[in-house]
Design goal:
The protein is built from 23 helices and 11 strands. It has helices at 2-14, 16-36, 51-62, 88-101, 141-156, 177-193, 196-224, 230-258, 263-290, 298-329, 357-367, 369-384, 405-417, 437-449, 482-502, 511-545, 549-574, 579-582, 594-622, 627-654, 662-694, 703-708, 717-723, and strands at residues 72-78, 107-110, 125-132, 160-165, 392-393, 425-430, 454-457, 461-462, 468-475, 505-509, 590-591. The longest helix is centred in the last third of the chain and has 35 residues, at 511-545. The protein is an alpha+beta fold.
C-alpha cells in the first residue's frame, strides 16, 4: 500500500492543476445540486418491527385519512390573574382563535376546548389541538405563520398563549460557536507549523471536503429522506477528521523535507507513510459509522452512512489534494525545525537541541510505567462513576429551553392537567378477529383503568367498520419518567391477557411509547454493535500493527474512554453539573441514542490516534530500536502533531455545543470530552505505559498468522528498501 500511495502522492504533486480542478469541479457540482434540491424533511423515529410502529401502520389502514404521522399543535391559553377561561370575554377570544386556526388548507381538524372538555379543573387553563395533514418539517411557512398570528391575536386580547407540539419544529442551527471552534483550530495549526501557509492547508482541504459532503447530503436529502440533523453531524465529524488527516500528511511532509529530500519526493513519502495511517484510521471510522445500520433504526443508519461518506471524502482529499496544494505552496512550507516568519529567523545552535516535550514525557512514562498506568486507569474510572446512574430517554418539549414557546406550553399543560398530559398514550385495539368487538373495547378500557399511574382513560373511538378502536390514556407522570415506561409495559402485559381471551390485539403507540421502544431497541443493539464494530476494527488493526496485544490494548483503552465520557455526559446533562456553562437549561435523561452513537464515533476517532501514534513506534521498532526506545521515538515524532490534532478535534466538536438542537449539543459535548480522555489519558499515558511494560511481547504475532496476513506496509519499509535508505540497519522481524 505504501508504494501505491507514494506514487499517488508524487502524481498529485506533479499534476496539481488537474487534481485541484477535479476537486473544485466536484465542490461546484455538489453546491449546485444542493442549491437546486428541495429542502430536507424530518427523518422520523420509525422502528421496523416494534409495537409502536405496528400500531401506527395499523392506524393508517383502519383509519384512512387521519394522518397519524401528521403534525400537531396544542395552543394553550391561560386566563389573566383572577379570571377564568370560562368567562364570556375569554371564551369569545378562544372561539375566535379556533375559527382562525380552522381556515388553514393543511389543517385537518381543530378541537374546541369547551366542546372537548379541555379546560383545567380550576378553570384557568385551556387548550385547542390542531391536526395537520403533513409533518412539522413539511408544513408551509404560511401555515406556521398563521398559527403564530392566531396566538398573537389572542395575546393582544389579554390571554397568555403558548404553542406546543411539533408544528413549529424548525431546522436546528449550530450558532456562532461552530465558527469559534474552527478559529481555535486555525490558531492551533499556526502554532504547530509556525506558518500561515502550512496552517491554512489542512483548514482549506477540510472545508472543501466538508463542503462536498454536506452539499451532497443536502442535495440528496429529499430523495433519501435524510433528517435535518444528518448534515450537521456529517459536518461535525467531517471537519474534525478532515483537519486531522491533512495535518498528519503536512507534518510528515515537513519531516521528510528536514531529512533533505526534494519536495516532490517528500510529498510522495508523506502520502506513502502518513497516508497509509490515514487510510486505516479512516477505515476504522467508516466501519464504526456504517456499523450503526445494525441497530435497524432508519434515521441512525442514514446519519451513520452520510457521516461515513464525508469521512471517505476527507481521506481522498488528504491523499490527493493535500500533496497538490503542497506543490502550489512550494518553499513557503518549511522543513520541520526550520522556523518560519511567524517565529522569527532561526538561531544557530552551539549545543545539541533540547529534547522536545513529547520525548521528555515518553521518557518519564517509560521509567515509571506502572505508576502512570494506575493513575490513568483510576482517573478514568472515577470519571466513569456517574455512568452507573445513566437514565435514557428521548427529548420532548420538556427538554426545550424555557425561552421557547413549546417549553412554556409544556409547563402550562403540566400545571393545568398534570405532568402526564404531555405524553398521552394511544392504545389501538384490533378486534377484527373477535366475536364481540364492542365488549373487547370495554374490557380493554376497564383493564387499563385498574393499572397504577393512570389518570384518565377516554372511551373507545371505533372506526367506521367497528373492528378497530383507539383509547387515549393519560399517565400520572411525565413522559420521560420510569413510571410512565412501566405503565406502557403494564398495558402491553394486560393486552397479552386480552389477546389470549378474545383473540384481539392491543397495541400501545404515540410519541411517548415510540420513544420507549426506540430506547429499548438501542439498548438491545448495543452489545451486538460493540462486538461487530470492535471485532472488525480489531482484525483491521492486527493487519496494521501485526500484533495481537497492541490492538487488544487499543480496544480496552477505548472502552475506558467511552465510559468516562458517558460519565461526564451524565454529570452535565442529567445531574446538572456545569450545566449553565454548557448552556443546558433543562436536565433530564440522556438521549437514548447517545451511548451507541458515542461508541461508534469515539471508537473510530480513538483508533485514529492509535494508528498515527503507534505506527511511528512500530516503524522505529522494526528498524532496530529497542521497545522502550521505540516508544520514545514515536512520541518524539508524533506527540506534538497528535496533541494538535486532538485539540483541533475537541475545538470542532465543542463548537457544536452552541446548537439549538439538544441532540447535537449533547453529542458535541460528549465527543469533545471523549477525545480529551482518549487522546491525553489513554493514548498519551496508558498506551506508552502498557507498551513499556510489555516490551517485545507487545509486538508478538503467531508465525502462522504472520504468514497468513497480507503485508500492507504501513511503515513504508518497501519505500526504504527501494531507495536504500536503510543502509546497514537491521529490520526486526515481528
Amino acid at each position: 500500500m505504501a508504494t501505491f500511495l507514494y506514487k499517488l502522492g508524487r502524481l498529485s504533486f506533479r499534476r496539481r492543476h488537474f487534481v485541484a480542478l477535479i476537486w473544485v469541479a466536484l465542490l461546484t457540482l455538489a453546491g449546485v445540486g444542493a442549491a437546486s434540491a428541495p429542502a430536507a424533511g424530518n427523518s422520523s423515529f420509525s422502528i421496523p418491527g416494534t409495537e409502536a410502529q405496528k400500531a401506527f401502520d395499523l392506524l393508517e389502514q383502519r383509519f384512512p385519512g387521519t394522518s397519524a404521522d401528521g403534525a400537531t399543535a396544542r395552543v394553550v391559553f391561560k386566563a389573566p390573574s383572577g379570571e377564568k377561561m370560562t368567562d364570556p370575554g375569554n371564551k369569545a377570544t378562544v372561539k375566535e382563535t379556533v375559527k382562525e386556526l380552522s381556515d388553514g388548507s393543511e389543517v385537518t381538524r381543530v378541537t374546541d376546548p369547551y366542546q372537548a372538555k379541555a379546560v383545567s379543573k380550576d378553570g384557568t387553563i385551556a387548550y385547542a389541538q390542531v391536526s395537520y395533514k403533513v409533518s412539522g418539517m413539511e408544513l408551509d411557512d404560511a401555515a406556521k405563520d398563521a398559527l403564530k398570528d392566531s396566538a398573537e391575536d389572542a395575546r393582544e386580547a389579554g390571554l397568555t398563549v403558548e404553542i406546543g407540539g411539533d408544528a413549529l419544529q424548525a431546522v436546528p442551527h449550530t450558532g456562532s460557536s461552530e465558527v469559534i471552534g474552527i478559529a481555535v483550530a486555525a490558531v492551533v495549526l499556526v502554532i504547530t507549523f509556525g506558518s500561515l501557509v502550512a496552517a491554512g492547508l489542512p483548514l482549506l482541504t477540510a472545508l472543501i471536503g466538508v463542503g462536498i459532503g454536506v452539499s451532497a447530503i443536502t442535495g440528496l436529502a429529499s430523495a433519501l429522506d435524510l433528517g435535518s440533523t444528518t448534515s450537521i453531524l456529517a459536518m461535525m465529524i467531517g471537519l474534525a477528521v478532515g483537519i486531522d488527516y491533512a495535518l498528519f500528511i503536512v507534518s510528515r511532509y515537513r519531516a521528510e523535507l528536514a531529512e533533505g529530500r526534494e519536495r516532490e519526493e517528500a510529498a510522495g513519502r508523506a502520502v506513502g507513510t502518513a497516508g497509509s495511517a490515514v487510510v486505516f484510521a479512516g477505515l476504522t471510522v467508516v466501519i464504526a459509522l456504517v456499523g450503526l445500520s445494525v441497530v435497524n433504526i432508519p434515521m441512525l443508519t442514514k446519519m451513520g452512512i452520510a457521516a461515513a461518506g464525508t469521512v471517505a471524502i476527507a481521506v481522498l482529499i488528504a491523499l490527493t489534494m493535500v500533496p497538490a496544494l503542497l506543490g502550489y505552496a512550494g518553499r513557503r512550507v518549511k522543513p520541520m525545525g526550520e522556523k518560519g516568519k511567524l517565529r522569527g529567523p532561526a538561531k544557530k545552535q552551539d549545543r545539541p537541541a533540547k529534547p522536545n516535550l513529547g520525548t521528555r514525557w515518553a521518557s518519564f512514562v517509560v521509567r515509571r510505567p506502572l505508576a502512570v498506568l494506575l493513575l490513568g486507569v483510576i482517573g478514568l474510572g472515577a470519571a466513569a462513576v456517574p455512568a452507573a446512574s445513566l437514565e435514557l430517554g428521548l427529548p420532548d418539549d420538556g427538554s426545550q429551553p424555557t425561552s421557547t414557546t413549546q417549553r412554556r406550553a409544556y409547563d402550562l399543560l403540566s400545571e393545568g392537567f398534570g405532568p402526564g398530559f404531555n405524553g398521552p398514550l394511544l392504545v389501538v385495539v384490533d378486534a377484527k378477529n373477535s366475536d364481540d368487538p364492542k365488549a373487547v373495547f370495554t374490557e380493554t378500557g376497564d383493564e387499563i383503568k385498574a393499572l397504577k399511574d393512570v389518570v384518565t382513560v377516554t372511551p373507545a373511538q371505533p372506526n367506521k367498520t367497528g373492528d378497530t378502536a383507539t383509547i387515549t390514556v393519560i399517565p400520572g407522570s411525565q413522559p420521560s419518567s420510569v413510571t410512565t415506561e412501566n405503565l406502557v409495559h403494564g398495558i402491553r402485559d394486560a393486552g397479552a391477557g386480552i389477546k389470549a381471551d378474545t383473540d384481539a390485539n392491543v397495541l400501545v403507540t404515540g410519541s411517548t411509547a415510540m420513544n420507549i421502544d426506540v430506547s429499548e431497541k438501542l439498548n438491545d443493539a448495543l452489545v451486538p454493535y460493540l462486538v461487530l464494530v470492535v471485532g472488525l476494527a480489531f482484525l483491521l488493526l492486527i493487519v496494521v500493527f501485526r500484533s495481537i496485544l497492541v490492538p487488544l490494548k487499543a480496544a480496552l483503552g477505548f472502552l475506558l474512554s467511552v465510559m468516562a465520557a458517558l460519565g461526564a455526559v451524565v454529570a452535565v446533562f442529567q445531574w446538572g453539573w456545569l450545566s449553565g456553562l454548557m448552556g443546558v437549561e433543562q436536565t433530564g435523561p440522556v438521549m437514548s441514542m447517545m451511548p451507541i452513537f458515542m461508541v461508534g464515533v469515539v471508537f473510530g476517532l480513538a483508533m485514529d490516534y492509535e494508528v498515527f501514534l503507534v505506527t511511528r513506534m512500530r516503524e522505529a521498532y522494526v528498524h532496530g530500536e529497542k521497545p522502550a526506545q521505540a516508544v520514545v521515538t514515536g512520541f518524539r515524532h508524533g506527540a506534538r502533531v497528535v496533541t494538535a490534532a486532538a485539540v483541533i478535534m475537541m475545538a470542532v466538536f465543542a463548537g457544536f455545543i452552541g446548537s439549538s438542537e439538544s441532540m447535537v449539543k449533547m453529542i458535541g459535548f460528549g465527543l469533545a470530552i471523549a477525545v480529551f480522555f482518549d487522546a491525553f489519558v489513554v493514548r498519551m499515558a496508558i498506551v506508552p505505559a502498557v507498551l513499556a511494560l510489555l516490551g517485545r511481547k507487545a509486538w508478538w504475532l503467531p508465525k502462522w498468522l504472520d504468514r497468513a496476513l497480507p503485508n500492507v506496509d504501513v511503515e513504508g519499509e518497501g519505500l526504504r528498501a527501494a531507495s536504500g535508505d536503510d543502509g546497514d540497519r537491521e529490520l526486526v522481524r515481528v
